[in-house]
Amino acid sequence: MTTDLFSKFDGLINEREALLATGVRDPYGIVMDKVLSPTEALINGRKTILLGTYNYMGMTFDPDVVAAGKRALDEFGAGTTGSRVLNGTYQGHKECEDALKEFYGTKHAIVFSTGYQANLGMISTIAGKGDYIILDADSHASIYDGCSLGNAEVVRFRHNSVEDLDKRLGRLPVEAGKLVVLEGVYSMMGDIAPLKEMVAVAKKHGAMILCDEAHGMGFFGEHGRGVFEEAGVSDDIDFVVGTFSKSVGTVGGFCVSNHPKFEVLRLVCRPYVFTASLPPSVVATAATSIRKLMHAGDKRAHLWKNSRRLHQGLRDMGYKLGTETAQSAIIAVILTDMAQAVALWQGLLEAGLYVNTARPPATPTGMFLLRCSLCAEHSDEQVEQILGMFESAGRATGVIP
Ligand code: PMP
């Protein structure tokens, strides 16, 4: 007799089938038929406002970015068919790393094929046997998976609790290697980390610090480097990890650092070595976008205006939100269960608005969320339209009075 290895998924399959049998659409089966701009797409033949992308700075359709990608596609072809350490480093990968070094003002930059792989690679490689990784309980899956791939001991602290971080670091052997892993913005609730206090505590215990700025790059801090820059702790963060799949508007991941031995990672970091490098067109779009983000003050200001307006409007309507005020470009609407979340999600979609649903295990403490993420290219009118849709769909589904 063969034991079906898929039987472990039966619970999830049954739960999904029961939900879809109520007649709702599958929130995880959306197809964009055509993308019209950073803020609009055709879904099921209907023009829909996008409020569930990570296109924070609206760079996906930037004419210079698109032109750079086309040029690289013509000149260098569709792909590298190789690892960065063999035949897969083109001039464009170096230019992309140069753009990152300039953006972050660091000596070193390494580009990975995704942000997920950047976390996987950095965390599993620099924290080894006998070392400790101390991470926030609400860390992104790529951080947890980086821990699983490596051999270090893993210690979790309560989400955003400086006191708990201090307590747990204090229990570790003084001489042991320690890596504290933090995120600037936590993407489920859209809250930011108290980095100033956390960095002070980590330093007190002699730990190195890695900060994931996936959701902070582009619009926090004087140069748009992230929450760590705004918190004034740039000199104390050892490694900043980021992605090209959000503000940069394409795909890829990176780590920047001033560590004098950083370049050895190109030889020892398995998720860098044992995978193909990014296509030339992708690194060309990324480099162009990163350079443009250095001068994107107006876009940043408009993104913040949009986030604050949406947060205030939703709160005034009676929605329960993930944060008291808009802390980032992510605004999480908290629902009671999956049925309510999907009902509101579908109501919004039918009205012409796409948002993301999120459920455990991605969310903290079993929460069901509709996650809204704003774009610098959303116009004031679009934000008002979005609020109107939330008002009618919220009333129709009984989520708000
Ligand atoms: N870190 C965080 C905090 C993220 O939210 C994400 C993606 N959602 C990643 C890393 C991975 O980025 P990528 O999409 O480039 O794999």
Automatic annotation (TrEMBL):
Superkingdom field: Bacteria
Entries under SUPFAM superfamilies matching the protein: PLP-dependent transferases (SSF53383)
Protein name, per record: 8-amino-7-oxononanoate synthase
Coiled-coil boundaries: none
Keywords, alphabetical: Pyridoxal phosphate, Transferase
Organism for this UniProt entry: Rhizorhabdus dicambivorans
CDD domains tied to this protein: KBL_like (cd06454)
GO MF, one annotated term: pyridoxal phosphate binding
Family of the protein in this entry: Belongs to the class-II pyridoxal-phosphate-dependent aminotransferase family.
Gene3D superfamilies on file: Aspartate Aminotransferase, domain 1 (3.90.1150.10), Type I PLP-dependent aspartate aminotransferase-like (Major domain) (3.40.640.10)
Cofactor dependence: pyridoxal 5'-phosphate
